[in-house]
Amino acid sequence: MKNLSRASAPAKAILFGEHFVVHGKPAIVMAINLRAYATAKPESGGKIIIESKSMRAFGSFTVDGAYQPILGGLEVWEKLLPIYVAARKIMSLADENNVGVRIEVESSIPIAAGLGSSAAVSVASAAAVGRLLELNISGDDIFRVALEAERTVHENPSGVDPAISTYGGLIIYHRGEGIRRLDAGVDLPLVVGDTCIKRVTGEMVLRVSEVRKRYPDVIDRIMDSGEAIVKMGAKALQSGDLKAIGDLMNINHALLCALGVSNEMIDRLVYAARNAGALGAKLTGAGGGGCIIALPPPGKDNRIVEAIEGAGGRAFTTCMSREGVRIEEQ
Ligand code: MEV
């Protein structure tokens, strides 16, 4: 076992196809240049001790999963659980089920905001623990482990979040079929606008499943349109057709509104961005709060940042991260 290891993984923005991807349709997703970092060290006593400053959570798990809070009370158990699951799965891959590990997580990714913070933390933790145990793991192993961890966050994850955090870049993700890389024919700076309303992904996913059960003929057609958007979106991205990318983002947002996952604050930020000249703007991730993304015309991102902040959101410009999970050399 090593003395120390450190790994990182990126956040993500779904350009097209969130929610539809849970129901078997493809989605296009881009890794962005915000990262979560995990540092792993050996720990005497056989426990898995996890500290996340950004989540204000600190606690320890015994080998059989019993949780003892150190800071933040019992309620933060849920926040640390995916990290514990990722560590345990890696330990069992390495056949090292009884070692103790301490994991420290730092992240600049807004939490519960649609940018894949929990998946990035799980992916980085899996890689850091794998490295600590000197296990030779592939990206596919890390993805599978992080997907298991994601199941503790919500019952029915499509896997899009752990996939993009693991592989990075720009990909088309199809549940059960894996990933296909896309080469964008253009730089894709995005403005992210955070409503600062926290929401629970699982509840939003459930809401869509319920509405689909109630109105299958209507919702299935919306999902088919989502799939058509992804097909046309892939072509527009490859050819660098910014106008088409923006139009398709707007249409995608309208479909998500029809599913009931937008709200007043999200729409306020989307319209503020469009009125300030964005070529397209939509919610990204599960909705119900969280973030929007807007596509600025080249060099015009500042105006859109200001407009979103003027409408009550928190905004920043981001761009693609080609790199997915990586080991940070000491
Ligand atoms: C969350 O980032 C994206 C959703 O489609 C859920 C999922 O794919 O697991 C809403």
Key terms for this structure?
binds (R)-mevalonate, globular, Ribosomal Protein S5, domain 2, 9 helices, 330 residues, Alpha-Beta Plaits, 40% helix, alpha+beta, 9-stranded mixed β-sheet, 13 strands
Task: Walk me through this protein's architecture.
There is one protein chain. The chain has two domains: 5-183, 2-Layer Sandwich (Ribosomal Protein S5, domain 2), CATH 3.30.230; 190-318, GHMP kinase, C-terminal domain (Alpha-Beta Plaits, 2-Layer Sandwich). Strand 10 and strand 11 form a beta hairpin. Helices cover 40% and strands 25% of the residues. Helix 1 (77-93) runs parallel beside helix 2 (117-132) and helix 3 (139-150) runs antiparallel to helix 4 (160-167). The protein is built from nine helices and 13 strands. It has 330 residues and is an alpha+beta fold. The longest helix has 24 residues, at 216-239. The protein has helices spanning 77-93, 117-132, 139-150, 160-167, 201-214, 216-239, 242-259, 264-275, 301-310, and strands at 5-16, 27-42, 48-52, 57-61, 67-71, 101-107, 170-174, 178-181, 190-194, 280-284, 291-295, 314-318, 326-327. Strands 1, 2, 3, 4, 5, 6, 7, 8 and 13 form a nine-stranded mixed sheet that branches. Strands 10-11-9-12 form a four-stranded antiparallel sheet. (R)-mevalonate (MEV) binds at residues 18-19, 21-22, 114, 116, 157-158, 160-161, 201, 205, 285-286.
